[in-house]
Amino acid sequence: MRLSAILSVITLAIAAACAFTLSAHAGGHHEAEAEAHAVVASASTYTLNVCPVSMESLSDAKSPKTIMHEDREVRLCCPMCAGKFKRDPDKYLEKVDAMLVESQMPYYPLDTCVVARGALGGMGEPVNYMYANRLVRFCCAGCTGRFEKHADEYIAKLDAAVIAKQSEAYPLDRCVVADDELEYVEPIEFVAGSRLVRLCCEGCVEEFQKNPGAYVARIDAAWEAQRGKH
Known about the structure:
By secondary structure, the chain is an alpha+beta fold. The chain has eight helices and six strands.
C-alpha cells in the first residue's frame, strides 16, 4: 500500500473517532461523563469561601490564588495574602482548621469512630482531627495513627456514610452550578467537606472546582432552608 493511501486511512479513522466523540458529547444526558467522574473531589478540597488571611470573600476576589501546603489546598484572595500565608502557614492553618471544623460538623455523617467503631463520646471528649481539609472524628487520640496508615480506606467509608445519609433528603433538585434540573440526567455525585454534591455534567465539575466554597455555601443555605420548613 502506498504511503498516501496509508495516510488517507489514518485520516479517516481519526475523523471517525472525533465524530463519535463529538456525537457522544452532544447527547443531552452526559452518561459517559458521569461514569468517568465517579469521584471528583478529594480530602484536600478547600470548602471555605473566605481567605484565611484577610477573611474576605473569595467570591469577590479579583486575583484569587490557590496554593498547596503539605498536601492541603488553601485558597486566598490575592497574591499578597498568599505571601503572608507562606511566611507563617501554621498561624493561618489554625484559623482554617477552626473554620473547617465549625462548617463541617453539622454535616458529619457518623456518631461512631470511623476507626474503632465505638460511640463518639464513649471514651471522653471526641477528637476532632483535620486530615488535609476534611474533618474526621475519633473516639480517642490513639485512633489517629491507625487512621493515617489507611487514610484512603477510612475517607472512602466517610464518603459512603455522607452519601447514604444525605441522598434521600438532598435539598436541591437543580444543579448548584448550572441551575439545570437534575431529574433528567444521571448526576455526578461526590463529597466535598462532609457534604454531598450533585452536578449535572462534567463542565459543572470544572466550574465547581474554581471556587468550591461558594457552591458549598449554596448547598448549606439549601439545607438550612429545608430545616426551617420542618
